[in-house]
Amino acid sequence: MLLSPRRQPRAVSKVPYKVLDAPELADDFYLNLVDWGSANILGVGLGSSVYMWNAQTSKVNKLCTLDDDTVTSVSWIQKGTHLAIGTGKGLVQIWDAEKARRLRTMTGHIARVGSLAWNTHILTSGSRDRLIYHRDVRAPDQWLRKLVGHKQEVCGLKWNCEDGQLASGGNDNKLMVWDKLSETPLWKFSDHTAAVKAISWSPHQRGLLASGGGTADRRIIFHDTVKGSVINEIDTGSQVCNIAWSKNSNEIVSTHGYSQNQIVVWKYPSMTQVASLTGHTYRVLYLAMSPDGRTIVTGAGDETLRFWSTFGRRPGTREDGDNGGRLADLAVIR
């Protein structure tokens, strides 16, 4: 009987191709301090300042330093160079990063803003005050809708812009799905037994939402937000800090805390491990993906940002120049 050869899992480099020094990168599970924008610029919150690293040129620029406040979240608008910054005092600032100009400061929250998510001109903010605000950045009002649902800090927010659904995760172990600008959740999932920071919508399958639980939970759970049901779950063995779907393949990457501080690439739906990447000496609290979907950057309280070539290119796109060289050259964001 002829046996077809087993397909070998593709090789993923176990070494980051670039390491950046990031002094003062906070070791705080509830913050979201790293985001990679469509213009190929990485925004990073360090202490009271925001720095920008241009992935094309490797140049670092300081965007701003807050007066008597700290940066608790950063998020790029989907298309363009507007960057939203959440602060420790509960403010949301919007900056034109290209012109290095602050456009406006928005109020509403009375505690730190640890999560931000854009859906075109709607900017959504989540806070330790347990509230979620939808803001129309074109309108003069401070906010458009107030969402009351979580009983503790809101630590994860992700829009599914295709379907107009927002997923929110809280320190109350709840995952909620909100439809459009509705002030009542469409679904409330109570499956996790620890804080839900890690949230990601599949770009390949409608209504497929992945979420990850903290130290007391350790699971990645897959939800069907069309039916409001749980599809599958896997115990990862450690705190789940972030999740992101590959844009180019049916794979998912998760980053972890205690005890291995690892980064894992999984095949979906089998959830077989494609690769496990180690190197961070603190929990891997920050994760962002390059605009072309081939590279991820991870950040940790060890004050490093590490760049990994985790995913292939999208089928049908040509191979272009290497994204920054293969040597782990140490530069400083400052």
From TrEMBL:
Keywords: Cell cycle, Cell division, Mitosis, Repeat, WD repeat. It comes from the Eukaryota. One of its GO terms (cellular component) is anaphase-promoting complex. GO terms for biological process: anaphase-promoting complex-dependent catabolic process; cell division; positive regulation of anaphase-promoting complex-dependent catabolic process. WD repeats lie at residues 64-105, 147-179, 277-309. SMART domains: WD40. GO terms for molecular function: anaphase-promoting complex binding; ubiquitin ligase activator activity. Pathway: Protein modification; protein ubiquitination. Pfam families: WD40_CDC20-Fz. Transmembrane segments: none annotated. Belongs to the WD repeat CDC20/Fizzy family. This is Cell division cycle 20-like protein 1, cofactor-APC complex. The lineage of its organism: Eukaryota, Fungi, Dikarya, Ascomycota, Pezizomycotina.
